[in-house]
TrEMBL record:
The keyword Transmembrane applies. This is Uncharacterized protein. Keywords: Membrane, Transmembrane, Transmembrane helix. The chain crosses the membrane at residues 22-41, 53-72, 79-97, 109-127, 139-159, 191-208.
Length: 217
């Protein structure tokens, strides 16, 4: 008779496939950092701005993460509420990354309004269904995807903000301080955090596909 693992049980991991993905992740990080280097070398006066490499790369990673989270939401009933929260986070960050364009071409403060329109209904749905969310989160919390997600969240929304403080860089550099140092520290750290979030969404897609495979075995 077919044997089904419960949703909370760990799913089998293919070591060779995992090692290959790890190698691909390393290559992607290397390519991103090479892009940062080229921006630093070749974009005098526009370094770490909307016209550079880093900020468009951040937006691309966020858009890809949101697309993967949407796929999970549409295909995995096991993570209906968790995937909603995972979808809202990169979308809100993507909107935030377009703040200069939105302020210039829509209205000043447009990004705050759009983020509020996205985040508040999402939180309402999650809080209203908090018991279902807790059950889903218990399934997700033991996964590699969640570990990457937690690391990306802390890197982007906590560490980069603290690491990019002007006061700290002014204290470190003294009279040699330039805003470029502060911008580089914050934006490149954000880029790495968004990269981890992207990896987390990739791993989540693979996780729900393994769940689906086990269910049909």
């Amino acid at each position: 008779m077919p044997h089904h693992l419960p949703p909370e049980a760990p799913t089998p991991i293919d070591f060779r496939a995992t090692s290959l993905r790890a190698l691909l992740y390393i290559v992607l990080i290397g390519l991103l950092m090479q892009g940062v280097m080229l921006e630093a070398l070749g974009l005098e006066g526009q370094r770490f701005s909307e016209r550079g490499f880093v900020e468009p790369a951040q937006s691309l990673l966020l858009a890809a993460s949101a697309g993967l989270a949407l796929y999970v939401r549409l295909t995995s009933p096991r993570l209906t509420h968790v995937s909603l929260l995972l979808l809202a986070l990169p979308l809100a960050s993507l909107i935030r990354e377009q703040d200069a364009w939105l302020d210039a071409w829509v209205f000043d403060g447009a990004w705050q309004a759009l983020v509020a329109l996205l985040v508040l209904p999402t939180l309402y749905v999650v809080i209203r269904s908090r018991h279902a969310f807790a059950r889903e989160f218990a399934r997700y919390a033991n996964s590699f995807s969640f570990g990457l997600f937690a690391a990306g969240f802390l890197t982007t929304y906590v560490y980069s903000r603290l690491f990019g403080r002007s006061e700290m860089w002014q204290a470190i550099l003294g009279d040699a301080y330039l805003r470029t140092f502060k911008d580089a520290a914050e934006e490149v750290t954000e880029l790495f955090g968004y990269t981890l979030l992207f990896f987390a969404m990739l791993e989540l897609v693979l996780l729900v596909r393994r769940w689906r495979h086990l269910k049909t075995d």
